[in-house]
Automatic annotation (TrEMBL):
<dbReference type="GO" id="GO:0007409">
    <property type="term" value="P:axonogenesis"/>
</dbReference>
<dbReference type="Pfam" id="PF00412">
    <property type="entry name" value="LIM"/>
</dbReference>
<feature type="domain" description="LIM zinc-binding">
    <location>
        <begin position="68"/>
        <end position="129"/>
    </location>
</feature>
<dbReference type="GO" id="GO:0000987">
    <property type="term" value="F:cis-regulatory region sequence-specific DNA binding"/>
</dbReference>
<feature type="domain" description="LIM zinc-binding">
    <location>
        <begin position="5"/>
        <end position="67"/>
    </location>
</feature>
<dbReference type="GO" id="GO:0048665">
    <property type="term" value="P:neuron fate specification"/>
</dbReference>
<keyword id="KW-0440">LIM domain</keyword>
<keyword id="KW-0479">Metal-binding</keyword>
<protein>
    <submittedName>
        <fullName>ISL2 protein</fullName>
    </submittedName>
</protein>
<dbReference type="GO" id="GO:0000981">
    <property type="term" value="F:DNA-binding transcription factor activity, RNA polymerase II-specific"/>
</dbReference>
<dbReference type="InterPro" id="IPR001781">
    <property type="entry name" value="Znf_LIM"/>
</dbReference>
<dbReference type="GO" id="GO:0005634">
    <property type="term" value="C:nucleus"/>
</dbReference>
<keyword id="KW-0862">Zinc</keyword>
<dbReference type="GO" id="GO:0045944">
    <property type="term" value="P:positive regulation of transcription by RNA polymerase II"/>
</dbReference>
<dbReference type="InterPro" id="IPR047169">
    <property type="entry name" value="ISL1/2-like"/>
</dbReference>
<keyword id="KW-0217">Developmental protein</keyword>
<dbReference type="GO" id="GO:0046872">
    <property type="term" value="F:metal ion binding"/>
</dbReference>
Amino acid sequence: RPGLALCVGCGGRIQDPFLLRVSPDLEWHVACLKCAECGQPLDETCTCFLRDGKTYCKRDYSRLFGIKCAQCRAAFSSSDLVMRARDHVYHLECFRCAACGRQLLPGDQFCLRERDLLCRADHGPPHDGTAARGPRSP
């Protein structure tokens, strides 16, 4: 199909012997397919991500659009184990009580108040049976 396709990047006719196809029907000159953020050429040797009509390298796509830890705001790698609380996702090391700093482990009871995780000791009712007035400080 060279000579018949129009490049999504520059709008020109692709008459080169090779073209790059992104998604099922977006075609590019080899020289035009670049990361919209850093300008890195995107070819058959690297992963290309498409969002809102723009192309991104894997690093920039993850940085801009990837899920980030609710505590440290850093992105996750594909090998990270995570903990979830409602819509929030945390690195294992970041999944800690905001009041006492204790790391919360799978099976631990906790409370999520706004953005703060609280362990059972810091969100539960006092041990003497009186009504709780809110989270207790250590």
